[in-house]
Amino acid sequence: MTTQFTAPKKLGVSFDFDHQSLVVTNLMKTGDFYKDVFDFEEIPHPERKPGFRWFNIYGNSQLHLIKKDVIEFKKDKSIHLCLAVKNLEGFIERLISKNIDFYDWPGNKGSVTDRADGVKQIYIQDPEGYWIEINTAKH
């Protein structure tokens, strides 16, 4: 199942979310993080080129890691990948078992943010410093 976005009626088109790409310096370590922590299925790059690791997130939605030697931009928490889970407490237990720190939105370690709409959320960082939000939003 893919998430479909309907554009304004004046465009007369709809979009499916396809993938998120992240540029990384340590392809193996970062790819192993996403595979191990999120249990994403690794899928082959269509051209089998070196320097890429692709993962299936859900349905046809994918995460693409692209190796570059230098990445120069600030990895701010406001720029993040967000994944929704049904059992946040179970996922937090998984993080704790893997010694992965998690934070609420203000940055308090080991805390969960309770949004005004009832959604709970936490943030973690991958080995490259990218932020990932995990929340309980229903889709």
TrEMBL record:
Domain VOC: 16-137
Annotated InterPro entries: Glyas_Bleomycin-R_OHBP_Dase, Glyas_Fos-R_dOase_dom, VOC_core
Domain of life per record: Bacteria
A Pfam family matched in the record: Glyoxalase
UniProt xrefs under SUPFAM superfamilies: Glyoxalase/Bleomycin resistance protein/Dihydroxybiphenyl dioxygenase
Protein name: VOC family protein
Species the sequence originates in: Flagellimonas hymeniacidonis
Taxonomy of the source species: Bacteria, Pseudomonadati, Bacteroidota, Flavobacteriia, Flavobacteriales
